[in-house]
Amino acid sequence: MKELKYLNKYLYKYRLNLISGFIIIIFARILLLYTPGLIRNSINVIENFISNPESSINDLQNELVMNVFLILAAAVSAGIFTFLTRQTIINVSRYIEFDLKNEIFNQYQHLSISFYKKNKTGDLINRISEDVSRVRMYFGPAIMYSLNTVVLIIITLIYMYRQSPELTFFTVTPLPILSITIYKLSSVINLRSKKVQESLSKLSSFTQEIFTGIQLIKSYAVESKISKEFNRISNESKQKQVSLVKMQALFLPLMILLIGFSNLLVIYVGGKQYLEGEISNIGIIAEFIIYVNMLTWPVASIGWITSIVQQAAASQKRINAFLKQKSEIINIENGNFHLRGNINFRDVDFIYPKSKINSLKNINFNLHSGKSLGLIGKTGSGKSTLIKLLTRTFNATNGEIMFDNINSKDFNLQSLRNQIGVIPQDSFLFSDTILNNIRFGNESAKLSEIEKVCKIAEIHEEIINFENDYNTLLGERGLNLSGGQKQRLCIARALIKKPKILVLDDCLSALDNKTEIKIVKNLKEYLQKTTLIISSHKISSVKNLNQIIVLNEGKIIQSGHHQKLINENGYYKNIFLKQSSEK
Ligand SMILES: Nc1ncnc2c1ncn2[C@@H]1O[C@H](COP(=O)(O)OP(=O)(O)OP(=O)(O)O)[C@@H](O)[C@H]1O
Ligand SMILES: [Mg+2]
């Protein structure tokens, strides 16, 4: 229960609904328990009528009709109150489910990229769906049935005890056995249904991956191998389902058996007592049989609830583990500085936290506002890593990154990131229209502005040739763009932000030389006051920039402008010659 304490704040938030739910339950139960007494009374009147030949049939009729009317009225009112109970308590569980999902989602968004590297996407989704629904069961059914059970047991025991203490004792003795049996059974059922859930999510992740990679599967003609694998996973899932159903099938018969046993006990003990004259009339037996049946579900639910609460606690434990995580990228409230665009790296080292790869070593450079920098180097030399440090996706392990002589750690993260436009290496677009994908960078951008940035990114002409031009839908249900088209849309999306620093991480790689050179030229013209960083494998993308840095295994091995680097014997000159001859 320790883990569930975290949720008390929600219980407090919805305390009024819960308290009114509790009061309503009491009313519902009192009304429901009004009927067995009326039934006893009806049987007694008939018994008296039979044993007393002088009594009038009219009186009997009137009394019975009155009782029937009262029973109906009590049942209908109890029904209304039960409906209201669900409307309060079960609704609260839905409100809390909603709050908790939002809390987890917000926490996810605040955590840094390293959190996502450490945890599997499936786990993240499971916390917010499966685990939250298990916790909801604690707030809804568990709380409702617990209150229900407590109220019902107390009131019923009082009613029963008043009629016959001895019969009460014999009637309730088998009930704890019912409770324990249902608890054991529910625990097994829950365990098995968890396994079913796991196998189902395995099946769906497998299917999802297959559909995503369907083109590859078809081109390698491995359909039959994949089908076999699907069959295997699906069969595993089927077996788990069957074993779950076996246990579920036991639930009802077991309950009926135990109720039957209690009923027999009431009839046996009650009958004996009646014959021995210890209880005065036969109606009591009928009344007790109704009590036993009324008590069965609440008593059984104790076992069921215990198992629900255990599961909820286990789920909440997993949720708490995520909620308690703190982002290692500390954000500060203030620090909304206006960037001018000066960048200064001072002795920056970086080691990836998980893999311990030392990807940047002693990086020093200075880039003035409005100037441009080229990053060039072999694959894996650290270009993308350097860019990630710029936006504080990760913190530098050693050294400082300064913007306009202010440490990047003193900036508010959102403010910093809003002023830097990064076009990542792997272009990602949402399954939405072209317009909305570009507006992602600036929601209030006008169409004319969007057209302008698309012209700079050399993609406007292609967009207007699509059937629905800027309203063309992309992705799963829409148009698939080519690699180069995607890259250019991503450039437009970054430009619409009007960033003070624009960073292109190898995002001209899919373009032909002519387009690439045109875009770099456009960018330099349009972004006169913007600091520009371009990372690339190609000399042509960086040769006209003010400054070029050559990276190798995380170290700066050469730096300077194009002409200077050409005159040095080194990596830069080598690839320049190689790429020129290829051209
Ligand atoms: N998320 C990560 N976790 C651990 N190591 C990483 C991660 N990303 C990159 N690395 C490692 O850091 C080094 C630098 O990688 P980086 O992506 O910065 O290279 P790059 O110069 O951008 O390469 P490319 O030209 O192929 O894009 C590589 O050795 C790589 O394996
Ligand atoms: Mg890279």
What does this structure look like?
- This protein has two domains: 3-193 and 247-323, ABC transporter type 1, transmembrane domain (ABC transporter transmembrane region fold, Up-down Bundle); 343-582, Rossmann fold.
- It contains 21 helices and ten strands.
- It has helices at residues 8-13, 15-32, 34-51, 57-110, 113-118, 121-163, 165-172, 175-212, 214-219, 223-275, 283-323, 383-390, 413-419, 434-439, 447-456, 460-465, 483-495, 513-526, 539-542, 562-567, 571-582, and strands at residues 343-351, 358-367, 372-377, 398-403, 406-407, 420-423, 501-505, 531-536, 547-552, 555-560.
- It has a six-stranded mixed sheet with strand order 6-7-8-3-9-10, with helices on both faces. A four-stranded antiparallel sheet has the order 2-1-4-5, with helices on one face.
- Strand 9 and strand 10 form a beta hairpin.
- Helix 2 packs antiparallel against helix 4 and helix 8 runs parallel beside helix 11 (283-323).
- The radius of gyration is 37 Å and the shape is elongated.
- The mean pLDDT is 87.
- It binds adenosine-5'-triphosphate and magnesium ion (MG).
- Adenosine-5'-triphosphate binds next to helix 12.
